[in-house]
Design brief:
This protein has helices at residues 15-27, 44-51, 53-59, 61-73, 75-96, 111-119, 153-161, 178-186, 212-222, 235-244, 261-267, 277-285, 303-310, 322-347, 352-362, 379-394; strands at residues 3-8, 32-37, 101-104, 126-129, 147-150, 169-171, 198-203, 225-230, 252-255, 270-273, 290-292, 313-315. By secondary structure, the chain is α/β, with parallel strands linked by helices.
Length: 395
């Protein structure tokens, strides 16, 4: 059976993980698929660095913006540093079990991995699947990749701007996990016309961030609604909101990390979230009208405008403006809200992940490449790390 290696990360948010899972679901019946936590290829320091993404983006967004802008101007330097750090572990991984094809869904493991492949003249197809909709980091685009798959026309244009050629680009749609597409296909959703409480879903993302208290209070104080707040893995936020919203009784429900987000999306008449591409596209698949409350600097900066331009939702960056915005959407039998839902039904695609998987399989050769012998670049560091890993296993 063909072997496909997917380079992803669970450490830097949950978007890369969900994309990798969407691919795995569609590829695994036809190939042997392994998802590798790519930051582990950098060693313990790399894993720790990856785990800083959540706290930095949640507590220090300005610092994240600086990191983005600095690395944006020096993508080759980033790739060279990453190549040096991952070389030994990556080559050992290839030597032990060579895949027939490599797919990456994380920007840090495009040029860096291709550098190593080219250095050792390994003939293996390499596919990049972009995880962002509009603003992509230059490290996403390495002209040496065999194919770069773009989930939107905007990301396709951005890849061209960074020097990619048309013949190696493919517009593919955004891959969504089967539990969202299957549930959405089976759902029977009726237009919201009032006469019952408006079901509101507020999401902070997997790391748990965002001004959820002000948004919740603005909704509960001024509308006939019920509010479900999902706080992700931020236990402190969950406990705080549970206490502060307790006076609203059954009208307010506060949850932590949820595996069945699709159920809450399908039960909601409207969803409030940051402009995370995965959450946005999952809501669109579920046909849940969106209010985008903000975006992370860098890769998410123009996602709110993307949502607005496509008619998939509206933008509300300040809780003080929420009341007139919602009131406007609910006028004339919720005409504005239902117009968004109609636009989503036109835009959404249930089969993007399946189509992407089909393309990947069509480019996967029957035989894996020959992996040559190689010298360790950092032998002392590698041997020390291996010794530490064995000691951890024994404990």
């Amino acid at each position: 059976m063909k072997k496909i290696l997917i380079l992803s990360s669970n450490e830097t948010g949950h978007g890369h993980k969900s994309i990798a899972e969407a691919l795995y679901e569609r590829l695994s019946p036809h190939a042997e698929v392994e998802i590798v936590e790519a930051f582990r290829l950098l060693g313990r320091a790399g894993v720790k660095a990856g785990r800083m993404y959540g706290p930095i983006t949640r507590l220090g967004p300005d610092f994240w913006k600086l990191i983005w802008e600095t690395s944006y101007n020096r993508p080759d330097t980033v790739d060279q540093l990453m190549s040096s750090l991952l070389h030994d572990r990556f080559m050992h991984r290839l030597k032990a079990d060579p895949p027939n094809l490599i797919v990456t869904v994380h920007p840090n493991f495009n040029g860096s991995v291709i550098n190593v492949i080219k250095e050792h003249k390994i003939k293996i197809p390499f596919i990049t699947l972009l995880a962002d909709l509009v603003d992509i980091h230059p490290t996403w685009v390495d002209k040496r990749a065999d194919w770069i798959m773009c989930p939107s026309e905007e990301s396709y244009s951005a890849a061209l701007m960074y020097g990619a050629v048309h013949s190696r680009l493919k517009l593919c749609g955004f891959p969504t996990r089967a539990r969202f597409t299957d549930a959405a296909r089976a759902a029977e959703r009726s237009p919201y016309t009032g006469g019952r409480p408006l079901e509101c879903l507020l999401m902070s993302g997997g790391e748990g961030s965002g001004n959820l208290l002000k948004l919740s209070l603005a909704l509960l104080s001024h509308f006939n609604c019920r509010v479900t707040v999902i706080c992700g893995r931020n236990k402190r936020l969950q406990n705080s909101l549970t206490e502060k919203l307790s006076e609203y009784g059954e009208r307010a429900r506060v949850l932590g990390f949820c595996e069945n987000i699709q159920d809450y999306m399908l039960a909601a008449d409207i969803a409030f979230m940051r402009g995370s591409p995965n959450s946005v596209m999952e809501a669109v698949v579920c046909n849940t009208p969106l209010i985008v409350t903000g975006a992370l600097s860098g890769q998410e900066a123009r996602n709110p405008e993307f949502v607005l331009m496509k008619g998939l939702g509206v933008i509300c960056r300040q809780s003080a403006k929420l009341r007139p915005l919602i009131s406007g959407l609910l006028e004339n039998g919720s005409e504005g809200l239902n117009r968004i839902a109609e636009k989503q039904r036109t835009y959404r695609k249930f089969d993007s992940a399946e189509e992407i998987a089909g393309f990947i399989l069509s480019k996967t050769p029957e035989k894996p490449p020959v992996i040559p012998d190689f010298d360790l670049r950092h032998p002392i560091m590698y041997q020390a790390a291996e010794l530490y890993r064995r000691m951890e296993k024994k404990q």
